[in-house]
Amino acid sequence: MKKIAIYCGASKGNDAIYVNEAYQLGKYMAQHGYELVFGAGSVGIMGAIQDGVVDNGGTAIGVMPKMLDEKEITSNKLSELILVDSMHERKNKMAELADAFVMAPGGAGSLEEFFEMYSWAQIGIHQKPIAVFNINGFFEPLQVLIEHMIEEGFIDSKYKQLAPLCHTPESLFETLNRYQPFGVRTYD
């Protein structure tokens, strides 16, 4: 496991802890030889993780749709920039490049990108590790929702820990490295 796709926000959030912890995640990745695969943005949580990686000698591979590249939010610090034609191509390219998937704080786009990988794991499209970097308890409401979906019979209980919440870079990478596939979803 070397290349880690991280889905996260282009916003900073309302508390400096989000940017600070995101930077520390990037720093940890660089110091331990992990490469970042991400949306190529220079701002928000995306930019903070990238800065942590690049400032500490790591590799940051950005995948950016041409339409967003024209809006000039693409980072100029990337080790490699891959331009694609659409958001769909971006997600596919990131999934192809990555050995594991992580979600850090962000908005609807981050959730959408991450949950595609979550659902793909359920139906057997990939068997790569996935986890959630839970800065400042950000994803605890999401965990409650997943547990509710399990209780109501919409997600099989074996997937309760498919996307575990991790609070430090160390615990995140321990979780990714210990990952065992959960098996393919069955239908009643």
TrEMBL record:
Keywords: Cytokinin biosynthesis, Hydrolase. GO terms for biological process: cytokinin biosynthetic process. Belongs to the LOG family. It comes from Staphylococcus edaphicus. The keyword Acyltransferase does not apply. It is an enzyme of class 3 (hydrolase). Its EC number is 3.2.2.n1. This is Cytokinin riboside 5'-monophosphate phosphoribohydrolase. One of its GO terms (molecular function) is hydrolase activity, hydrolyzing N-glycosyl compounds. The keyword Hydrolase applies.
